[in-house]
Amino acid sequence: MSHAEVGSLARLEMRGIKKHYGAIQANDGIDLTVMAGRIVGLLGENGSGKSTLMKVLFGMVKPDSGTILFKGQELCNHTPRDAINAGIGMIHQHFMLVDAMTVLENVMLGWKRTGLRVQRNQIAQEIRQTSATYGLDLEPKAVVGDLPFGHRQRVEIVKALLRGADLLILDEPTSNLSPPEINSLLDVLRRIAKQGRGVIFITHKLGEVFDLCEEVVVLRDGKVAGKSLIAGATRRELAHMMVGRDVSSGLERTDRKAGPEVLVVRQLTLRDSSGRERLRDINFSLREGEILAVAGVDGNGQTDLVDTLAGLKIPSAGAVTMDGREITRATVANRLRSGLGYIPVDRATTSLVPGMTIGENIGLRDFDHPPYRRGICLDRRVFREQARAKIARFGILARDPDTPVQTLSGGNQQKVVLAREIGREPRVLIAFQATWGLDPGATRFVIDQVIATRNRGGAVLYISSELDEVLMVGDRVGVMSNGRLLGVVPRDEVDLGQIGLMMAGGCDDLATPSTN
Amino acid sequence: MAPTDQPANLTEAAVIRSDHKMSDFWRRLALAGLAILLSLLFGAVAIFVSGKNPVLAYWSLLKGAFGSVDSIAFALNKSTPYILTGVGVALCFRARVINIGGEGQIAVGGIAASWVALNASDLPGFCLIPLAILAGSVAGAAWAAIPAAMRLTRGVHEVLGTLLLNFVGLLMVSEVLHGPMGEVGAGFPQSPLFPEQAWLPALVPGTDLHIGIILAVLAVFACHFAFWRTPFGFRLRLVGSSEAAAAYAGVTFARTVAGVMLLAGALAGVAGAIEVLGVHYRLIQGFSVGFGFNAVAIALLASLNPIAVLPAGLFFGFLEAGALAMQREIGVPSSLVYVIQGLTMVFVLCAIGISWRQQRI
Questions:
Q1: Is residue B44 included in any domain, yes or no?
Q2: Which of A262, A360, A410, B309 is spaced 20 to 30 A from B60 at the CA atom?
Q3: Helices and strands, number each (H, E), in chain A
Q4: Mind listing the pLDDT tens digit for each residue in A325-357?
Q5: Residue B2 within a domain
Q6: Distance, in angstroms, between B26 CA and closest chain A CA?
Q7: Which residue from A435, A387, A386, A393 is spatially nearest to A411, judged by alpha carbons?
Q8: A175 at the B interface (CB within 8 A)?
Q9: Residue A38 and residue A198 in contact, taking contact as beta carbons nearer than 8 Å
């Protein structure tokens, strides 16, 4: 597809953008063109380079090479303030608003035009006008903290528009919105485009791209995997561009017949304090000697699922049974005792206490029981002995058990977690993003340990946003999307296109009213 | 993981470790010494400006603190409530519970101990004194239980709860002294003198030094042990370093917070009981004023390390005893005494603050 003839009308032209972080090439020669009045979808998985590209554009990150032309002028070495002044508006996924202030005050905050003598009434009037033009339904005097989520986002949009944004970037704008809120956001964006402004809509949801965008650029591994006008594209095609890879495992795994069911989850539902459903009717079972691997883009309910299973959140409905005993509302300690191991994603604040020693971290979840506890005392010798044994068995690079965990590398820290959770030979192991932030060697170690647990007869739930890992590890594979667990199938029946569609919310008719 | 990166990693770990354990202690000590020196220097300037001779003033401070058996006894008695209350506060702060209610807890502990001493006066001393101290600790714990419950059930921050209950506690002392426990015709809000068998026995015969300091030292060692060697202490350390990690480890946040608040309240209550039974031999108005906040300063001075509360509390006690002597003998105004105390605190805290981040948890 050639855009040469419209190049002169282009609001934005990014050419050959490259940016690396360490050994990772986050952007590897990306081109992006946005024309006036056009809505361009930027589609890709986690880590495909979408965010980096937008940070480069907005001046938050300096590219290694490449040029940016905006309205015919070159943007180079610019700061976010320069970008705003040039007419670029960015709506971040996490809003930059002060909850305790009114809409008006938030709009004025940090805006030069507000000047020394604050022109409240005039700006309030402008907010009302803009709000009416684009159907935003915003009252300047409302306190932001009282507004529903969708309206807070509109405050950000008003902020950008009043500051004269000709190009609006929205980073995953629908991830926290309810379906009706999504629909009205899409309406607002259409009106904005109609006024001749450009919009870049970053998402991983195919449905929204088809609903809203006129063209789409798909990123994968820091490169443009393909671009297309929506009119000529199919969902399957785009899903394949986004995911496109072979299921080459390169991993030696023995075939193992799964045993009886160990963990059974029925109709699990979780609502947050505002009544929104974070988990919707989740059903699955784990069998002895089997790994159920779950793919999905971050923020689709994975955290809620593992926290609910681990006993850190109490479900609103449904039942969880382990070996026939109901544990839906059991305490963390009870779950531990019945053999439920859990590897959370966050090493810094959850699975480890960085200031404590290796020994104390090994005993972190068992300190209240023998052998760690003897009478009213903690037996420090046992902490050390256990740690010494684990250091040897899991190859943790540390001199002795009294080393504080914070002095270890990320890979060795994760080994401490594995040593504790896998070392207890769990009946059920929940591993959530267990390879997050690890180098390839450490990643491989973690995966090998998980598979060893399965070979020993453990039942494993392996959740990751790295599709490669999920496909490599799972005996059965499913996808989390919008709080639901979809399409669990055995590994040899996996259909990549189908998985891509599910990850992109293409199978979720509730979240995205489909037009294709 | 290539085997070749092992040696490099190990040396790095070893360096961090030796740095962590050995030199850290001496560096902290040197910094603390420097801080005390600086505060004395600034204090000297202040004394000089007020028209007194700083050398003489400091000589009398030294004599007042260490000059005689009596002055040492006085300073040790001064230190006792600081140490008891300070060690409780240190444990609370370790669990990130900001308990600044020591003053109120001391006041209420004092009331309860006084009530026992006055009303069970036919008991022999070996029953009466433990009973009175026990009453003090129970009352202190109960007083601390109120802000703990407010925090855990209603989400009222404990800073607010403990602070406000300080005023209530102080006024309650006034109230009982103007009512049921007041001495008739005394002209000052105070209770009648306790019967002699309720007085804390002297530790060194012929001096004012009472057995309170023994209790304080025992409490410090018990808290040190509890903090580092028991499941209770492990829970405190977990809750203090990360609530998420504590929940993950199966530790109940509410139980832990309630537990440490009650413990700190009980210790402050004992401090109150010791003040009335060992120093005043009666309940008097305002006997607890300032103790609670000084205890917070002492806990911070000790880097929230239970065992270090002992030297920190002694330092404070001796400084105060010396400063009072300085005021008495040289006529240095009493406000200047507080200035010197405050300066010392500021300098010492600055010195400690530098090394706080590497602290062991």
A1: no
A2: B309
A3: 16, 22
A4: 999 999 998 999 899 999 998 888 899 998 899
A5: no
A6: 20
A7: A435
A8: no
A9: yes
Query: What are B300's two structure tokens?
Result: 């911070």
- Interface probe, candidates A327, A353, A412, chain B, greatest B C-beta count within 10 A: A353
Q: How many residues does chain B have?
A: 361
User: What is the model's pLDDT at position A204?
Assistant: 77
Q: Which domain holds residue B170?
A: 54-360
Interface of B with A in 241-300 (CB under 8 A): 241-242, 244-245, 247-250
pLDDT confidence tier of residue A114, bands split at 50, 70 and 90: low
> With contacts defined as CB-CB under 8 Å, which chain A residues touch B234?
360, 367-368, 378
Band of pLDDT at residue A315, cut at 50, 70 and 90: very high
ipTM of model: 0.82
Residue of B nearest to A334 (CA): B250
Stronger pLDDT, A298 or A131, i.e. the higher one: A131
pLDDT tens track for B10-21: 334 333 444 445
Residues on chain B touching A376 (C-beta within 8 angstroms): 230-231
CA distance A349 to A346: 6
- Is the Cβ pair A332, B10 closer than 8 Å? no
- Report d(CA B128, CA A23) in Å as an integer: 74
Nearest CA in chain A to B225: A377
Residue B179: what pLDDT?
86
Evaluate whether residue B314 is within a structural domain.
yes
- Rounded to two decimals, the pTM is 0.76
Residue A438 has pLDDT above 80, yes or no: no
Least confident of A190-199, A411-420, B11-20, B301-310: B11-20
Burial of A261 (0-12, 13-18, 19+ CB in 10 A): middle
Helix (H, G, I), strand (E, B) or coil at A265: strand
For testing contact with chain A, the best of B229, B232, B234 (most A CBs within 10 A)? B234
CA distance to partner chain A, nearest, from residue B2 (Å): 8
Task: Tell if the CB–CB gap between A355 and B360 is shorter than 8 Å.
Answer: yes
In a domain, B43, yes or no: no
The SS3 of residue A117 is coil
Of B226, B224, B233, residue with least CA distance to B309: B224
Of B13, B245, B359, the CB nearest to A399: B13
Q: Is the pLDDT of residue A516 over 60?
A: no
Distance of CA A358 to CAs A364, A480, B275, B359, Å? 10, 34, 44, 16
- Which of A407, A447, A449 would best serve as a mutation to test chain B binding (most B beta carbons within 10 A)? A407
Three-state DSSP class for A503?
Answer: helix
A220, A223, A225, A230: CA torsion to nearest 10? 100
* Assigned token pair, B97: 């519970």
- CATH number of the domain that residue B103 is part of: 1.10.3470
Q: Which residue of B has its CA nearest to A330?
A: B250
Name the token pair of B236: 């405190």
Take residue A386 and report the two structure tokens written for it: 């256990």
- For range A162-188, the mean pLDDT: 85
Q: Domain count of chain B?
A: 1
Report residue A476's pLDDT band, with 50, 70 and 90 as the boundaries.
Answer: very high
CA B103 centroid distance within chain: 10
3-state secondary structure string across A176-245: CCCHHHHHHHHHHHHHHHHCCCEEEEEECCHHHHHHHCCEEEEEECCEEEEEEEHHHCCHHHHHHHHHCC
Q: What is the mean pLDDT of each run of 10 residues along chain B (361 residues)?
A: 38 40 68 80 88 89 90 94 96 94 96 95 89 97 96 93 95 92 86 91 88 96 95 94 92 94 97 95 90 89 89 90 86 77 79 57 58
pLDDT in tens, A236-279: 788 778 776 543 445 667 777 888 999 999 999 999 887 888 89
For residue B92, the tally of other CB atoms under 10 A from its CB is 30
